[in-house]
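Note to self: keep these together.
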Amino acid sequence: MKNMFLTSAVLTCLSMTSMTSIASDTLRIGTEGAYPPFNYYKADGQLAGFDIDIGRAICAEMQRKCTFIAQDWDGIIPALLANKYDVVLASMFITEARKEQVAFTDPYQASAMTFVADKYVSLTDVSPQAMKGKIIGAQGSTTQAEFLLANYPDSEIRLYPTQDAVNLDLASGRIDAQAGDIMPMTDWLNSDEGACCERVGEMITDPTYVGEGVGMALRKEDTALLVELNEALAAIIANGTYQKINDEYFSLNLLTLK
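Structure:
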């Protein structure tokens, strides 16, 4: 009887060890799914985009399976801290405020923001004084929103749940301008939906808001995973995989914005 209990206990331990091993082989990646061309849903309901392809390349380099979990942007860090996934790969700016909550990998994109406005309005001056009384949009819980709220006190700032919603209101004339991340804005302006509009003013590169670039976020205690992610990122940059993915989506190199 004791041998039976011992055998059962050993099998249970082996089973638990196997389950742990399987779980550790799968990297759970959190993303938004509403930020084209970086992360979005295709017509068939599958996640796609630059972030998704970079995530798959990193998982392949790490020889780990990966699963993608979509999460609304304003809850993306809380869900990471609640262990819903292991890493956030969603074009997130590395800022000092966010570094108080999470750790970041090395940057996998450079970062900058821009204003966009209706090209037929001929808006050229986007200084706080010139934008007094105007309506400016941005996606909520983003560094663009923080930038507008801090620097444009005399403008009406409208915040939206998704970037697509901001784009729609600008194209429909419900807002005067918007502030957005440079690459999604460039991509949208090159689409039929964004043909109404154009970039205005200089690129916004204040590190207070655009931080140190765009990185993957993870829990601070996951130090071994941080090393592993940085090594995999460096490898796909060195072997040309990053550039190949970059060129499928953008004419500029996201590491240099040139």
